Amino acid sequence: MNTQAILIKNETEGVRINRSIVTMINELPSGKYRIVIEEQKQLCSVPQRKLMWMWFTFLERETGTSRTYWHDYFCKLFLDDDFISTKDLSSVQMAHFMNQIQAEVAVEWGYNLPLPEDKDAPERFNEFVREYQYR
């Protein structure tokens, strides 16, 4: 007996569920049950992590301070103590973390870290990737 259902709720498609909750409940034997609905976390994407490390490599090259230092510095600056590693962040949390890094680096050190969606200079992002993707 399958006692799990997958529920998806978003602004574009509304609510979708892969099976009827009523049917699922009716299939259960008599007894007491606890129903829990929890958000399913989508972990950060590989491209997000790659870009973050390219940024840290850029900072390492510009400042002479290791990229690992920059990773740990920004984690301590912006993340709760609950996060042991950035790989545990959801894609939304990683996007927020990277926005914070981008703003901090611009204000404190005057560097403009590129994003793929930068409409003003898409070629600048491509050049950045070519320069830092294998370092």
Integer average pLDDT: 85
Helix content: 40-55%
The succession of helices and strands, N to C, reads: EEHHHHH
Shape: elongated
Query: What is the tally of beta strands?
Result: 2
Largest sheet strand order: 1-2
Q: How far apart are the first and last residues' alpha carbons, in Å?
A: 51 Å
Query: Given the structure, what is the number of helices?
Result: 5
Global Rg = 21 Å
Poorly predicted runs of 5 or more residues: none
> What is the makeup of the main sheet?
2 strands, antiparallel
> Which structural class is indicated by helix and strand composition?
mainly alpha
Proportion of beta-strand residues: 5-15%
Question: Could you characterize what this model shows?
Answer:
A two-stranded antiparallel sheet has the order 1-2. Helix 2 (46-63) packs across helix 3 (67-78). The model has no long low-confidence stretch (mean pLDDT 85). A hairpin with a 3-residue loop joins strand 1 and strand 2. It has helices spanning 21-27, 46-63, 67-78, 91-109, 122-132, and strands at residues 7-10, 14-17. By secondary structure, it is mostly helical. The protein has a domain at 46-132. It is elongated, with a radius of gyration of 21 Å.
